[in-house]
Amino acid sequence: MSSIALLAVGVTAFLSGYLLYSRYIATFIYRLDPDYVTPSHEFEDGVDYVPTNRHVLFGHHFTSVAGAAPIVGPAIAVIWGWLPAFLWVVLGTVFAGAVHDFGTLWISTRHKGNSIGTLTERIVGSRARVLFLLIIFFLLLLVNAVFAVVIANLFMANPGSVLPVWGSLVVALTVGFLIYRTKAGLLWPSLGALAVLYIMIWLGQYAPLSLPDFFGFAPTAAQQAASAGDPAAAVDAARVDGVRAGWVILLFVYAFFASVLPVWLLLQPRDYVNSHQLFVALGIIFLGVILTNPEVIAPAVNTNLPADAPSWFPLLFITIACGAISGFHGLVASGTSSKQLDRETDARYVGYGGAVGEGTLALTSILATTAGFAIYAGLDGWHEHYGTWASASAGATAAFVNGVGVLAQGVGLPQGFAVIFAAVVVISFAATTMDTGVRLQRYIISELGAEYNVSIAQNRWFATFIAVAACALLALGVDRGAGGMRLWPLFGTTNQLTGALSLLVVTLFLLHLKRRVWVTVIPMSFLLVMTTWAMVINLIRYWTDNQGALLVVGGFIFVLELWLILEATAAVRRAVAGHAMAEAEPRIPTGAG
Fold it and tell me: 3-state secondary structure string, 382-447?
């Protein structure tokens, strides 16, 4: 299979979805009104509510939602073959993910920029709001824990990436100061930041940095090696996990301060710089595919699955969490983007278009891990890498990084630079998501504190500490961080569940407006069935594998899901009954007194 053909089919499907399907939804379902006064104009304050050019807002939204998840998920899912992953990324984006992102942005715009959690109270009920906030809290908990482990593993595997990643923080602080304090404008600071970043990537080849083992953790793997009479392996395993724990703790210390600092000082300029890096990376990957046209030698459908690999149905639909549909996107769309939308008609470009952009990133992950990585490792090497479910999960980012490295070499980049470049791309995306995730988690804790009148939970320092501590404990609590990717199925399930419930809120609003709901009901129903089914499978596995932490967290989320579905079912019945009563009431003739 030609990688160019696969790229062409995927991009054509995404463009068709945007040009045709999103236009139908905008015109006949959401009925966007160019004259509607958006929250950015109604509540303009120069801080949160700011009318923003749609191209600028697209860049902000795209960067906020395009984290490491659309890279990691497909890089794991290709263990079942490239065809199932490709079909779900393309069809899931066009008919589910982009509809979800578009819908949550639109409904928030129609409700004064309120978040999807607040809208749940208005549309479903007060209990539903608290249930949804708790589900969102656990989603963010899993996002931050998973990405911390992903970044730590990448730092350990690619020490040359440490300098450019941490150096980019200094660059971001400088850009923030220049833009907001000296009014230097956007163009030159942005170009200068991008140039400095790539200089640091080049320097990273010659200045690899590593953390020492401060902790000396002896995890399960080390204990098993020691009991098997291999003390050297036990020492190595303990050292690796100690270094990983050090990185995880350091990352959450950074996330704590990044989440309480003013957004203009670090997060906004970092997102802005990363947005340029994202577009450059996509350009290099696409150009590498076009110039080298590597053959997709990985199987279309893998009929020789390892014994520990679960069935692709329904696990595929929660393994590829982002890149097809993501509940996290709804938090961004209704949390920040809806407050910056200049015109309601821009929601199609920003919401649907942003999801298509992330689907494109997921498509590049499939190409990198089935064509680029296959060239890097060979067909036998690919089968060895995906020889077990555990190795496929743990090595997902490595497969992507090495695959992109091969494609980048096809553009003319040196091998050492290309690999560090790919690692920095993944780390930057994951770190950006962590920054946003911890800040959103602080908001959720504060909102729950206000709901139950717990004043200390509304303090930003305390709320941030609780968020960071909970995430760090979860990240380190699964085999001392060594099995951190075991969190991925639970993250994927919770993420897809959040997306399905957000679609449910949009569906109820459409019912209230007496509009057609099939565009949201079909993906919502599919996701609810798949996520519930996958959650049951995961809980059984956690029970049999004695994964107590995952069993408790997953079980609690499962109970919240069922409870919220019952609340939503009651709301649907009320809405249908209300419509029936309205239709049955006699109409008063026009002009009657």
Answer: HHHHCCCHHHHHHCHHHHHHHHHHHHHHHHCCCHHHHHHHHHHHHHHHHHHHHHHHHHHHHHHHHH
11 residue type, one letter? V
- Give the pair of three-digit tokens for residue 2: 């030609």
What is the rounded distance in angstroms from the CA atom of residue 67 to the CA atom of residue 172? 18
| First and final C-alpha spacing in the chain | 73
DSSP assignment, residue 546? T
Exposure of 336 by Cβ count < 10 A (0-12 exposed, 13-18 middle, 19+ buried)? buried
Please name the amino acid found at residue 352. Y
Burial bucket for residue 41 (CB in 10 Å: 0-12, 13-18, 19+)? middle
Tokens of 80: 């079942």
Delimit the domains of the chain by residue range.
3-584
Secondary structure in 3-state letters for 436-491? HHHHHHHHHHHHHHHHCCCHHHHCHHHHHHHHHHHHHHHHHHCHHHCCHHHHHHHH
Q: Dihedral sign, CA of 5, 7, 12, 13?
A: positive
Which residues are 269's β-sheet partners? none
What is the average pLDDT value for the chain, to the nearest integer? 85
CB of 355 within 8 A of CB of 101?
yes
The tens digit of pLDDT for each residue in 138-182 reads 888 888 888 898 899 889 989 999 999 999 888 888 887 777 677
Dihedral angle at the C-alpha atoms of 428, 89, 11, 420, nearest 10 degrees?
30
pLDDT at position 227, please?
53
Give the residue-averaged pLDDT of 212-216. 67
Give the single-character DSSP code of 160.
Answer: G
